[in-house]
Write the structure tokens for this entry.
Amino acid sequence: MDIADRVPKVTECTEEQWLKSLRNTVERVLPIPHYQHSYAALGVTKAEDISSLRDFQGLPLTTKEDLRKNYPFGLFAEPLENIVRLHASSGTTGKPTVVGYTSQDISLWAKIVAHELKRVGVTKKDVVQIAYGYGLFTGGMGLHYGCEELGAIVVPISGGNTARQLMLMRDFGTTVLACTPSYALYLAESLEESGISRDELKLKIGVFGAEPWTEGMREQIEERLGIKAYDIYGLSEIMGPGVAMECPAQKGLHIDEHFYPEILDEEGNPLPIGERGEIVFTSLEKEGFPVLRYRTKDLTTLHYGECSCGQVGWTMERVSARVDDMLIIRGVNVFPSQVEEAILSSGGFEPHYLLVVYRDGNLDQLEVQVEVNESSFSDEVRELEIRQQRLHQKIEEILGISVRIRLVEPKSIPRSEGKAIRVIDKRNKEG
Ligand code: DLL
């Protein structure tokens, strides 16, 4: 597939403009030994050697493994005295991936997030409760600086302590909630059980991301909290939250113009616009940790054009899954989001579920544990059996394999205060 065909000709100068920005990043990374060595092998020793987008697409991809090999600071493009902040990936195994920001990077990041928040109606009059974790994770600080740039009032509460979150939400008149969608749902559920009524709250907007969530989940959150819920996407290796975010149209996430996206197939070949694959980003302005053709492992579809909000540019569909999250059950690819979709469209269940994968003899088995909602829980056993049967059928239709459904009591699946854990894979442990 020819890269030149992939680039939409929205304006005559688009390709030239991108090329100029991409060359800037090439120039920035060339002094870094990791990039220098692999580029030299391709005959690229200066930015001018990249004379087309096709040349650019010939440059090697950067992976999480490359970041690990260069741990901690080997891919920084600025001396450490110019770095003012470090963040690190949330990975639980091995060395974390470390990213560094100059003060200009921090200021650019804040401006990007502020612009995105403004687009969904956040103003300096808003009170923003940031319930993303603060720390090495980019969620808390990323939103924090964006809100301050906008002039909004920040409540830097971080994640957890749910009863206190609700009390302050009421007492401070919080209008915007920023956290993971699974935590938003937990807050909604806790609100319903607390003595606080929804009318006592001023909430109107949610800024939710850091994990995959479905349209059904959005409907639940919007209804239960009485807000508009917007999807925000990002990853520490590229910047943090704000690489892309929805606009009021809620028809895809606008990719910020400081990042150049590509979609690749499993072998790393470019896919045409409109096809689903792995999204890869190149940063265009970052100083401390510029990154070229970074493989995110996130699966989505890319579009280019004018949105109904009037903005022209790249949009991406919601990230439904990570390549890593894909389970292979008896040869069939299964993503947790497909199960979530089935659960939420079946009625009678809560959007709290867990996929447990185990081996029965030589066969992989998938058990879907799902919470029955309070009202269905008191139903006759026969009623519950019918529900279970229906869900079984729906999942089989979507996945093409039969799974075991285990209905569990309301509130028995652990709630998350950050990124939700949806899968327990017992196969390796069982050997
Ligand atoms: O999760 C940054 C972030 C914070 C984004 C707050 C949005 C809000 P990491 O910890 O590096 O950074 O994890 C990045 O999380 O590659 C995706 O797999 C996933 N992810 C992030 N946002 C979304 C989203 C932050 N809106 C990884 N939808 C990414 C689906 C998301 N997955």
In short: Residues 89-90, 132, 137-139, 209-212, 231-236, 240-241, 296, 298, 319, 322 surround DLL (CB under 6 Å). Residues 326-425 form a domain with the GMP Synthetase; Chain A, domain 3 fold (CATH 3.30.300.30).
